[in-house]
Amino acid sequence: MSALERAIANPEPVPGLDAESPVAGLARRSVGGIEVLAQSVSAVAPAGAALTIPAIIAAVTGSASLLPMLVAAGVTLLVASTITQFSRRMAAPGGVSAYIARGLGSTAALIGGVAQLIGYGFVAMFALAGTVYTTLSLADFVAPSGVASDVATGGWAVTLMVLFGALALWILVRGIRRSARVTLVVEVVSVGAIALLTVAFLVVLWATDAPRMANRTFAVFDPTGIDGPELLVATALAMTALVGFESASTLGGEAKRPLLAIPRAIVWTVFVSAGLYLLTGYAQLAGGDAADLRGGDGFFPVDGLTAGLGMPWLGAVLELSIAASLFACLIASATAMTRVLFALSREGLLPRALGRTRRRSGTPVAAVALTMLLVTAVPAVSVLLGAQIWPTMQWLLLGAATGYLVAYFLACVAAPVFLWRIGESGWRSTLVAAAGAIAVVVILVAYLAVEWTGARAVAAWVIVGVLGVTVLLAAWRAAFALRHPRIRGVYDVPTIADVWGGRRGGA
């Protein structure tokens, strides 16, 4: 008998294991690395962001410059590198809130958890509203009727919201493997289509007028084309196109090899999203004057650009890609939100029903139902009260960006403390985390300062008010810590069934 055969026949006892993981009930180790990547990429919704944010930046700064997008990509990479310090060491369905708990404790984790729920929830609402808007716009393209330009009446818009919300609910209840595959297929098709069409678009532009494109390229990459305050505000707006990259961390209890797959997904999502973002941003900014981009108030400023070049069909294909990407974003963001609700329920902060899962699929059904109810109701009620979809999407995006940035800041502050506590701190990781924290807080303050004086001031005050109440609640909980559950940062651990020779704790 060989040594291997002897080890299999009489395994060495491994004591100290439990029979059940703290996240038991989820479909553990069922989602592959590619599907984990699709979760984060879909939550970012690169197709929709890449085709809209550059025009918004041009409208704010008055110039066509890629510099804010480059700076935003750099800041996002700093934050992503910091968050992977946690995801390499723990597989937590609570994601960033669990990481914050392990570094800064329960009080900060409560604030981060609420900020995280605001981020995921508002992006899911934004994605649902955007899916409806693109559908109405495509309907106008096929059979012009003006329905998309008069969405304040609410009839078609609310009906489509309910239908898309019900479809997303059905996909989510079916289980993480099915929903992950849906987002994977949809996102690959939409991102691939936009990348190919953008490259073709640039080839046509360069072939048509190479000297003009050379001049425009120089202007787009000229760092002197935008001043300091404008750069700060534009970077804050550009950052909103990349938030959500960390949502793969909420699949910590369900991913195969989570300590390897999740960090890779987080970093690669930043590269994929930022790459598409910069490519399409360059195509829009170099392909048309800033004034052309600023001229449209709608969701698709590229429509006028493609129509002006005699390619209106290209605008329709891009809109279809945006619709697909936003629906995938809806599923991915709702998935992340349900896992955070699940984790907070297991911590004892939310009702136990939210922490229960469906035996067959491992889905936290109550958390999914609550998530989709909120995600569908908020934009639908807004439209029924007379708001148009595009303004509604703008204040939803404001709320999402604020929630994400607060959570990112706390995670960057928590990382060096966490690494120091486990004896693995280093000057490089500390420097990256500090740079990320400073950059994020500056961007957040600049973003809110602009919004407080703009058309979405009420939304800004509401979001800040919610976070302020959360801070007061966290302080109150800290004062009575012995009487209330604490957020410990629940995460998946090996069980007896996972280890050859596993034994119950202490045996």
TrEMBL record:
Q: Which residues form the Amino acid permease/ SLC12A domain?
A: 36-448
Where does this one sit in the cell?
Membrane
Can you tell me where the transmembrane regions are? Answer: 36-60, 66-87, 108-133, 153-172, 184-207, 231-253, 265-285, 365-389, 395-419, 431-450, 456-476
Which of UniProt's keywords are assigned here?
A: Membrane, Transmembrane, Transmembrane helix
Could you tell me the membrane topology recorded for this protein? Multi-pass membrane protein
InterPro entries reported for this sequence: AA-permease/SLC12A_dom, APC_superfamily
A single cellular component GO annotation: membrane
BP GO annotations: transmembrane transport
Q: What is this protein called?
A: Amino acid permease
Give the species.
Agromyces kandeliae
